[in-house]
Design goal:
Layout lengths: L2 E6 L4 H14 L1 E9 L6 H10 L4 E6 L1 H14 L11 H20 L3 E3 L8 H12 L4 E3 L1 H5 L3 H10 L13 E5 L2 E5 L29 E8 L2 E5 L2 E2 L2 H14 L4 E7 L5 E7 L1 H17 L2 H19 L6 H13 L5 E8 L2 E8 L7 H4 L11 H9 L1 H14 L1
Parallel strand pairs: 1-2, 1-4, 2-3, 4-5
Antiparallel strand pairs: 6-7, 7-12, 8-9, 8-13, 9-10, 11-12, 13-14
Length: 400
């Protein structure tokens, strides 16, 4: 009886070549798995392609809602931005893909799972750590890393084995996308001093071509997650899809930065994350309204560590669960509405409200009817500045 290998299959050149390679090298039956996480691809065509390449069975899994509720929503609550810029969109989908690979492998009695990640990137870590955490008995195969085949060699292999080559030489980019964002790599983007060409972008207009009039969008949050857009309650998937279109139309969500990959390589990364950019900015603003200063300052450290763990492939790590517990506790009061203004690539929060607001106009107002006793500040200043004054006095004595 042949061995079975479950392959995470995207339908692209790499994983299509891997089907034949795995069949030949391991004399095994290959079972392919494709997850719909909002990448807007023809899953039926992907399935037909896999079957034509001789796979034993193909699984198409609609995971959009699971991805949104169990991965994207926690990222919003954590204001997840790796190195302060990247909304970990690709990283978020990897533990979900890994969990489905394990699920199918266990169902089909497969001994191995495989992926098409390279040995230079982060995804190999994210998928393999998650698979091993879920089922240590499964062997993980990384053919691209093991094979070390160049793009040209892959194309030649594909031609020899009659594998369709979905490569457009005029747009030589490597793209990964899901509901939460679109990452674009390769080609001229590998040169950090070059501006990304317009053909690299699909979800966002260039700011100079965005509408001449700003657009206002209101977002209602309940316990840290978005529930309604412009006063209309929506299914989570639809809400994010709608906001991707609205914000993208105004050129919001383009990200271009130097990123530190987990394995130590500096990499120029380009992303389009319209909905993520808007929702995280709005969510952070609402937190400032309802959380205390101490909660906000401490949560900034927790959020940064949460984003790093997700980026670094440690979704299954106990520390992430610990951080989730803290974050979820803070979100009990993060309910309210935020109004944002979108214009020419920019987002500006212009209003916020919440039943849990800590803002008291009677304390904050400069009008005569304020309830704040300004005379109290004198004593506060005296005590607050005491350590500074003592230290400065000591310095003067030391100088003679």
């Amino acid at each position: 009886m042949k061995k079975k290998i479950v392959l995470a299959y995207s339908g692209g050149l790499d994983t299509s070549v891997l089907i034949k390679w795995l069949q030949q090298k391991y004399d095994a039956d290959v079972i392919t798995v494709t997850l719909d996480v909002g990448q807007k691809e023809d899953l039926k065509a992907i399935q037909e392609k896999a079957l034509k390449l001789g796979v034993l069975k193909h699984y198409s899994i609609d995971a959009k809602e699971e991805f949104t509720r169990n991965y994207v929503f926690p990222a919003i609550k954590a204001n997840a931005l790796y190195e302060g810029k990247y909304p970990v969109s690709t990283a978020l989908s990897r533990p979900l893909i890994a969990s489905k690979l394990v699920e199918v492998a266990e169902k089909e009695g497969a001994e191995m799972v495989a992926h098409g990640c390279t040995g230079k990137g982060n995804d190999q870590v994210r998928i393999e750590v998650s698979v091993k955490a879920l089922n240590p008995n499964l062997k993980v195969i990384a053919p691209v890393r093991e094979w070390n085949m160049t793009r040209d060699a892959e194309i030649e292999f594909a031609k020899r084995h009659g594998i369709p080559i979905p490569v457009d030489e005029s747009k030589p980019y490597s793209v990964d996308q899901n509901l939460w964002g679109r990452s674009i790599e390769c080609g001229i983007l590998e040169y950090p001093d070059k501006e990304p060409p317009e053909d690299a972008f699909e979800w966002t207009l260039p700011p100079e071509k965005a509408p001449e009039e700003p657009e206002y969008v209101s977002i209602k949050f309940e316990k840290g997650v978005p529930k309604a857009l412009n006063n209309k309650e929506m299914n989570p998937v639809r809400l994010i899809e709608s906001l991707n279109v609205i914000a993208g139309k105004h050129g919001v969500g383009r990200i271009d930065h130097m990123e530190d990959r987990l394995i130590g390589i500096k990499s120029r990364e380009v992303y389009e994350c319209p909905a993520a950019t808007v929702l995280i900015e709005a969510h952070k603003d609402l937190e400032k309204l309802v959380l205390t200063r101490h909660e906000i300052l401490f949560k900034q450290h927790v959020d940064a560590q949460w984003a790093f763990l997700v980026y670094a492939g440690l979704w299954m790590d106990p520390l992430k669960e610990d951080l989730d517990a803290f974050i979820d506790k803070t979100q009990e009061r993060v309910t309210g509405e935020v109004r944002v203004k979108l214009y020419k690539g920019n987002i500006q929060v212009v209003g916020r409200s919440s039943p849990y607001s800590l803002y008291d106009i009677h304390l904050a107002t400069y009008n005569i009817d304020t309830t704040f006793n300004q005379m109290s500040s004198a004593g506060f200043i005296e005590i607050w500045g005491l350590p500074t004054r003592v230290a400065r006095a000591l310095k003067k004595l030391e100088r003679g």
